[in-house]
Design brief:
- The complex is a heterodimer of chains A (426) and B (228).
- Chain A has 426 residues and is of the alpha/beta class.
- Among the domains of chain A are: 27-92, no CATH class; 160-387, 3-Layer(aba) Sandwich (Rossmann fold), CATH 3.40.50.
- Helix content of chain A is 47%, strand content 10%.
- Chain A has 13 helices and 9 strands.
- In chain A, strands 6-5-4-7-8-9 form a 6-stranded parallel beta sheet, sandwiched between helices. A 3-stranded mixed beta sheet of chain A has the order 2-1-3, with no helix packed on it.
- Chain B is mainly α.
- Chain B has a domain at 136-228.
- Helix content of chain B is 78%, strand content 0%.
- Chain B contains 6 helices and no strands.
- Chain B has helices at 3-20, 28-64, 67-84, 92-128, 143-162, 179-226.
- The chains are: A alpha/beta (426), B mainly alpha (228).
- Chains A and B meet through α3, α5, α7, α8 and α10 of A and α2, α4 and α6 of B.
Chain lengths: 426, 228
Amino acid sequence: MAEIRCHSCGKTNPANSEFCSFCQAVLGSTAVGNVQEPSLNSEYHPTNETLPDPVETNQVSQGRDPSMEGKNPLAGLDNALPLEPTVRDLTKPVVYPVQSSETDIQKAYTLLLSQMVKDETKRPTYTRSAPKKSQSILRIVVAGILFFTILVPILWNKPAAQLPSLSTELILFDQKISELSPGATVLYSVDYDPSATAEMEAASWAVINQLMARDIQLVLVSTTPTGPVQAARLVQNIISTQQNQVGSPLPASQIINLGLIPGGSAGLASFSENPSFFLKDATEMQMGENPASEQTQPVLDLTSISNLAMVVVVTDTPETARNWIEQVQPWLGGKPLMMILSAQAEPLIQSYYEGGIRQVEGVVISVAGGAGYEELVGIKGPALEMWSAFVNASWIAGTLIILAGMIHLVYTQMVQEKQGSGEKTS
Amino acid sequence: MSTADLVGALIGLFLTLSIFSYLLGDNYLFRLVIHIFIGVASAFVVVIAWYNVIWPQLIQPLLYGALTERALTIILLILSLLLLTKAVPSLSNFGRPVMAILVGVGAATAISGAVVGTVIPQVIDSIRLFNLPGSTGSGIGSWSTLFNSGLLLVGTLTTLTYFHFITRTDSKHPGQKTAWLRWFAKAGKFFISITLGAVFAGVLLASLAALVDRLDFIVSLVEKLFNP
């Protein structure tokens, strides 16, 4: 294949190239042998033959090196004109092509990209489309069915047909709580959003009841801003319920709310390494509100989180659960990390407690877990109260989803068949 | 029920019914409540940040702390102020070093935690599931264990393959995955779909629990109002 050599950089290019693909210089058309050489102008690219004798023209100094004379006519001469780029620079400057040599595909991509950038910077205009009447009716019908199935057991106070089965996880959870000695310190993290309060309070009610019943020192913390208030509300509800039911509430000194641990995973890592730093400020705040010295004593002694008897995390997000597993569990020194999880977090945390390495040693999952634990320990809390309505709503919601999916499948199939037959007739 | 409790409960009833009004379509009452929720949530976060972080960890040491504590807090205060410059485009360069520290520390913590707390234990656990000689010495336990472990292995590998976006340029099929890689990715998609389905079911159950709680609240309040 014939090639053309660039006079500027000396590299070879395909014969049909107009510009050098290396330096973008304009290529000539004269081919020499298999390689086309751009036409060389002897005026600008003098050879040794065309150069005037530097000795005759007195362009060189008289100091010659006789030993170099036999090698080259210009060898050994100090001021001989060298054949270097500086000579060529005196020529007319190379005109670089303004037009880029992009392919059609590249042009299309460039156009697409510029269009995307243009669309991104453009302010979107939203057109409000009126909802279809059938959609509104369907929405009301679905809501009506759900409301009815939930309200029936609430209004008639109908007991659940079947209570949740006791899983191995629940039995192990209770076993771990039973192993705690009275007066032991348990860190209880309330890490859920207010929107998950109903589910998480139902799930954690019996657990916190059991801990309080065993005279455990509860230290409440949170990594979410609303957590401290949620924790206070939960404990207050439990205390007032106990007061109403039993008449002898647990002493308030058993529970210390330390507030927020800021900083997400970094905050938790720091807390694991040096809990006293975090607890110092929080304890002082607590002491300001209630200056009972015995109340804060166990917290002040907490120089390492391995001194805790147990850590219980109540959360509705897998990220928070994972943060506790990754940042805190390795520092616990074999003390159990227990979790009370929302149904939406459970699938992603399952592998941490079902595997051989049990990083989480016990779980209570959602309303079902809470109801099961309430049944196990013999307490009637919010989980068992809502269990019947919850089961009904779950069944109805599941049935409606499957039904809607099947209707959509059949409808799509029918539409496709109709379109196919329409195309055939046309 | 005290007056404060009654007022709180009635406000709760109004807000709950306003949210339920969305069933009849988008309306001003629903939007008003949404705006109230967002405003209250933002304000609450600010209050918590002040009382739990800014006051005890920044202002208090600065005012009442020892000399070394004050000096350290001044550095933290300067860094905090530099971070605030990120809000002004012309001054945002001053906030970059602080942001770099924050991102760097966060990433380092997350990565080290993920490696030590998730990747290594989960990999060891996945291997141990096969009950290979050398790990427990008992050999392959049963066919069901083998099946479950195999399923887990296939699920892990195919899911990882689904996120394999690197392709080798081939003269015949430029920029395409090889056939076996495509089949693996399809199987991975199947496992991912099952996982997302499970997560969706969980979200649905959590929402139903909230709905049951709200309806229970309305019924209880009405009962208390008309039958105290």
